[in-house]
């Protein structure tokens, strides 16, 4: 199942054509029984991205109606949603022109990622790292290269040698004393925000050098689709990752589910 809706209604070919332009931003989220964990964080992300890319505000009520309309037309209450904000009249020849924005909602089957993965660190920096924009080619190519090398995914390291993020996920590592969130230019995810707000034990955000990874005892990856343990990074085994991921899931389980229909 992968259905596309514009303004809450099934999208037409005419409506979809402008969305092919590589200029826009999005958020991905999981819906269960018509509700979302961290809905306010997703809406805040969409609002900030719209201001940055299009210099205009986003009607959050319209976004919520677009999502609920898409779910109703799809006939589902549980789903994965990708909500993309784009401008139908955007012209790359005149990118400063004022344009109205539209919302495209993709509805697909719900997912919950939790299986362990082995990752490799690679020198790579996302363009406009703090913005969840539609330029995802580099991310997927890095994942593909990692899988071709025998790993499950890639972990990015910036030019200064500091760990930043995974291809589509954030990283937390444990140094034996505390949970550590790498401090570097990266897309700060909604799951990370919920975990940091609810983590009951000691945690810190600081720069993490690539060379430090071999001394870590555990790590997990997280995004809106779940939390999964990293069993190894660059061949360094992380025996405590399963237990750490379980702690993270327990924290997320306490985060409230916010109804889309407000």
Short description:
The protein is an alpha+beta fold. The chain has helices at 13-16, 39-54, 60-74, 137-148, 190-198, 241-253; strands at residues 2-6, 9-10, 25-31, 35-37, 79-86, 102-108, 117-123, 153-157, 163-166, 170-174, 179-182, 203-206, 218-223, 226-233, 236-237, 257-259.
Average pLDDT reading? 96
**CATH arch. level architecture of the largest domain:** Alpha-Beta Barrel
Q: What's the multimeric state?
A: single chain
Our estimate of the beta-strand percent is: 25-35%
Described by the principal axes of the CA atoms, the overall outline is: globular
Task: Count up the domains.
Answer: 2
SSE-based structural type:
alpha+beta
Count of beta strands: 16
CATH topology-level fold name of the largest domain = D-amino Acid Aminotransferase, Chain A, domain 2
Helix content: 25-40%
Word description of this protein:
The chain is α+β, with helices and mostly antiparallel strands and 262 residues long. The protein folds into 2 domains: 107 residues, Aminotransferase class 4, branched-chain amino acid transferase, N-terminal domain (D-amino Acid Aminotransferase, Chain A, domain 1, 2-Layer Sandwich), CATH 3.30.470; 137 residues, D-amino Acid Aminotransferase, subunit A, domain 2 (D-amino Acid Aminotransferase, Chain A, domain 2). The strands form 3 sheets. Strands 7, 8, 9, 10, 11, 12, 13, 14 and 15 form a 9-stranded mixed beta sheet that branches. 37% of the residues are buried.
